[in-house]
Amino acid sequence: MTKSAPLSGQLSFNAQHSPMGAFMSFTCGNFGTRGGIGLQIGQPGDQEVFLGYKDGDRYSDGTLKCLPFYTAAVNRSADAFLVEQAGPAEQNVKPDATPFQEGEFTRSYGWASDVWEADGLRFSVYSPFGAIPDPEKENRRRMREGLLPAVVARLELDNTKGKSTRTAMFALNHARPGSRILEADLGKGRVGFAFRREAGGAAELFDYTKGEKGKKIDAGPFVFMRWSASDGVRKRYNPVHLLGSCPGFGFEVPAGKRYGITIALGSYLEGFQTNGMDGRYLYTRYFKGLADVLRTALDNAGKMVIAAKALDEKLAAAHLSAEQKFLIAHATHSYYGSTQLLEVDKKPFWVVNEGEYCMMNTLDLSVDHVFWELEHNPWVVRNLLDNFVRHYSYKDEVKVYTSEFAPTTETMQMDPSQTPPPPDEAQLKRPYEKKPGGISFCHDMGAHNNFSPQGRSSYELANLTGCFSYMTQEQLCNWVLTAGCYVAKTRDTHWLKGQRHVVEACLESMIHRSGDVGFSQFDSTRCAGGQEITTYDSLDHSLAQTRNNVYIAVKSWASYWALKLMFRELGDGSRQKRCEELAAKVAAVVSDQAVDGVLPAIFEKANPGYASRILPAVEGCMYPLYFVNTGWAGHSLDEVYGSPSERRMFEVLREHTRRLLLDPERRNLFADGGIKLSSTSNNSWMSKISIFMHVTRRVFHLDADPAIAEVFQKADAAHMKWQTEGSSYWACCDQIVSGEGKASRYYPRIITSALWLE
Amino acid sequence: MTKSAPLSGQLSFNAQHSPMGAFMSFTCGNFGTRGGIGLQIGQPGDQEVFLGYKDGDRYSDGTLKCLPFYTAAVNRSADAFLVEQAGPAEQNVKPDATPFQEGEFTRSYGWASDVWEADGLRFSVYSPFGAIPDPEKENRRRMREGLLPAVVARLELDNTKGKSTRTAMFALNHARPGSRILEADLGKGRVGFAFRREAGGAAELFDYTKGEKGKKIDAGPFVFMRWSASDGVRKRYNPVHLLGSCPGFGFEVPAGKRYGITIALGSYLEGFQTNGMDGRYLYTRYFKGLADVLRTALDNAGKMVIAAKALDEKLAAAHLSAEQKFLIAHATHSYYGSTQLLEVDKKPFWVVNEGEYCMMNTLDLSVDHVFWELEHNPWVVRNLLDNFVRHYSYKDEVKVYTSEFAPTTETMQMDPSQTPPPPDEAQLKRPYEKKPGGISFCHDMGAHNNFSPQGRSSYELANLTGCFSYMTQEQLCNWVLTAGCYVAKTRDTHWLKGQRHVVEACLESMIHRSGDVGFSQFDSTRCAGGQEITTYDSLDHSLAQTRNNVYIAVKSWASYWALKLMFRELGDGSRQKRCEELAAKVAAVVSDQAVDGVLPAIFEKANPGYASRILPAVEGCMYPLYFVNTGWAGHSLDEVYGSPSERRMFEVLREHTRRLLLDPERRNLFADGGIKLSSTSNNSWMSKISIFMHVTRRVFHLDADPAIAEVFQKADAAHMKWQTEGSSYWACCDQIVSGEGKASRYYPRIITSALWLE
After folding, report:
1. For residue A510, how many other CB atoms are within 10 A of its CB?
2. Of chain A residues 220-259, which have a CB less than 8 A from chain B?
3. What is the ipTM of this complex?
4. For A417, nearest residue in chain B (alpha carbons)
5. Average pLDDT per run of 10 along chain A, which is 758 residues long?
6. CB pairs below 8 Å between A and B: how many?
């Protein structure tokens, strides 16, 4: 069996362990900080995770030796912690565990697992994933399996060589009050605890002395709840105090034995959880409550572990470097932590929350998640497309400016942890005429469980020229490309026919925004005085402005390809032809912009972005590749670049990429070798780097050049460190400023790295 | 009209403003800390409250001048705050309000109001209270009025002498994400905001230029939501950003005008909120949701303000000192903040949460709340008594010790913020025989919305000799006394007859615990090796041990009085007589313990508590006083002390109290003049001091002695400072260690001070 190899770099980083669609994570791994079970939040939970063993039986005075997942394990916030957890008259209880030191343990991180080993102790968390079942098609059993809002873990202690009993334990010390013992019947020999009505754990005990299969020990583990893990384990008379903050499980392992507990960690949020539209978790249709969830998770644990190991094995077997595999695994863990499958008006409603920001179904993320989702559960993509049309589409006009304009502010390096610059006054005052626009889609559907009013995002504001402005053109492309990918993968022409009017409106809207060149020339009137921006919202001028932006131009080209193929399916030859012409036109204009083999980021000489060199210029090439690979295009990738202008654009983009990657001044690389998306900004997005690398390999085959292969290899190593060192508390992090996760943390979007598996 | 006078001491202290039974507080008043709306928590909320005005219209660049209810108003935690509130790319927005300085504003604190005035600005919060309506008797309209989970506030700005427009605003800056604009229809000219589904505010605008009555301005206030109050007020284009953390209301006041907004601040928690027993808020029967609550609060605001002012007036008119009135007002505010009226199994379920600890219906608090509750809504007391019988009673045996015992640890000064001492090993090892015990009641019904398993409290543990041990004897007295008071007030003999078996069992249980002397001699077997304690759980030996404790002895005497009168109602002459004899016997034994005119706290010479002098010795005298005053006893107080032994006990207790209060060494007073309940401990409970003072005045009339009247007067002043200075963040605080609120904070129990109004 191909197992995930132990990690060799920094082991202290958080991983999210999440079921599918429950907006829940069990998070641990970063030393000395809180984590545990977090629900509906864009950051790790508020529990200390105590995990370890001591010599002697449970009542012995031995000191617990624990993995360093509690605050006092790192000499830093212990004092604050003590004040925080203070309870009635038990306030100054000192955590009396000793942490394992680095070097005393290993960590193996798989696609669906995370395994820590130290001195006979083994802790593994499993979060298998797969197809999220479609409630309109699947039976109850499959729905319960697929939507089970729980992960499973195993804590094993090998005492086969020991001379006396050892005691192992797992506990969560909560910062908020409300822990309790779960009194419900969980099955024979099983015990449980909970936090109020919303989350909890359950465990059962096995003897693994004679092998991995294990033999159930009916006596089961013991459950405790005091103000500290060590107290709970040791107290002979009152192991459970209902006022305690730290519930947990323990078990004694006699000399000569290897015992382990299987732990289910789950959640259950009943009733409406969202506003604007009343949404409850779809899993509440299939589970009666928390006890049902935890019982089921223990019942299914064996299957879940096997499924997780199979996934680990699959990733381990991929022809990728260790760093690449790590990034894919890490991205997958965080992706599922942001997923939320609701039921609104008795219909399923798919939401991916935007990491730390918790914006709901941010469309410029959705378009990146689409490859993964179509691989696993295409129906959620259809659900998303429909919900955007039904609730979060709008019609605008466009602003045709009647004066020339050059930005008054200089290209600037923006740190997303700093206040964005004020709007560009020159732009705000620029006169314009209104012309017809058309359909587009909101940036998102709301934030933090608050659906925004219909036709409006939580993010976008008028009269801005940078961050928080409208992304009308880009979101139009995003819906078109997502729809194209959906049809490419599923060939669901029934759905496409139902959306014919939308697809037609999208083409019209693209054209209205495009002037003579075929891609974004005007801003939406929704901006009022402001201007549209791109998804790279805190980058510099090279990617802020939508108009005449090379990234948007190529993405528009790809959108015409998607539209063309959809009109082909719809039998609309005339519009198919129109799209073909527009694609060719855009390609010609883009190609014409190259200077010395390189494309400017903004095709406006007076714009500071004109001097910027950006790698996302090629991002749009991803989509035709997908249309070809799925067989939908019906021809090879060569034919995508079959027209003279498209062939020319291909060459220009390839050369642009080659030059940027091999730039002797290394303007598109960070000092550590990581990829710098714009030559003029220290902001980089890992999710976008992943797409860029994929296109570079699979469209342009530039990695055949050993020099570029080496650049990529070094970049992968740097990218892994961005996660494990630069952003260790925040699990998978997208937006990196010079190697440090400054924004877009705890983020789903890096799932684009799974493209590398193709 | 008698108005509450402005306070003259420290103005910086938190007040809870709470509806009845909603476990909700709008808390503000302490400078530089967070507060706002807090739900189901034992501490202030997590919002900064911005309240103030600026010169100019809303778009002007004037700086907001605010009351100091936000963190940066006190130069302390501003840095931490900035990191905490950081949102997408708007992180370093500095709060740009200037706080009013002390001396620039006044505060008047009434029974149901809190009014701040500064330079034409006036902010008043109103929390009228009254009878909580009984759902079995009252109609829907009354239920909606009584259970409305909201308070109302008014923010007025007097610009009658101004030369130009001024702009006033109210905003709540949330630490947690999830703020939103309330889009629901609230009525003409009304706007609202909310926090997720659970809480929110609504406002409407009035012109008060021509008088207090006000004339509605249909245009209404404006609503905003940005990352700071000042931004929200000032932004011309995007006053609402759905990602903002700080929603609020504002209004412009033209020169020559006085305008004001009425603000409703309410909550709505739907679905089951408790575990163990599934409980939802009873108000959900009568309100459809948050918008319904806020709309109704604005509709009723006029009546609510009138009701609040009438209550203010009533307290202001009482023949009490300003300090006494303050304590009663402060206690009432906090009492309602802890109240929670649920519906379990379609029946109402009354809960008072224990302040910061959130233990549910702690019975040794309930017995103190009973005077207030019987005055306002006796049915909740019946509800409580029934629920204790049904769910939280138990039967035990008692331990008859077979060896003598003296505590091994010395009398010690215990600080409740420190770990309690370990159990007394000598006690744990003491041999005993089991004898029949009987019925008693749990310390509480659970904690933090988690009902504990039937027959078990969240607090009590076995094998302890101090804090967290069982209170079996005391809780038995508490149920009996509560039942006695309920019958005394209501003469509900129908109920009493239904509880005949319980009342009989209580007498039997009292007798089984009492040996030859008639009061607590044995500990419950529930203690295992431990011993029972009293409600004074973190005091020293003088009040820790239940056996042979003067406080428990006199409380037992009172319990026999309650039982005697209940058996009289039940026509059980034989048991009535038995109770009479037992009361006389206890009185004789107590009287015999006096040495030099003073009673030892513990009637055991080897016990360190023997040397302690405690004022709560007289607490039990409260109940016969109540039975007399309600007319239930059917005779005067003199006849209570009619038997020779009871007359003797009266004299002994009076002399004991007199000597302690006038002790030249001032061992029962703190340096500041506050009352020290035990001569050997610095722990004092304000709720118990209130009862003690009441008994001293109304039973013993010792305040007729000018020396004692002076002691009390100085004590009242000290007690007020304990609240306003020593415990200012924690609103009303019960357990004071040398003038500082160290435990039992944010507490309901001080409502006993309302006895002074009699």
Report:
1. 25
2. 237-238, 241-243
3. 0.93
4. B89
5. 77 98 98 97 97 97 94 61 41 70 95 96 98 97 98 98 97 97 95 97 98 94 96 93 96 98 98 97 98 98 97 97 97 98 98 97 98 98 98 97 71 62 83 97 98 97 92 98 98 98 98 95 95 85 87 98 98 98 98 96 91 96 98 97 97 98 97 95 94 98 98 97 94 90 93 96
6. 147
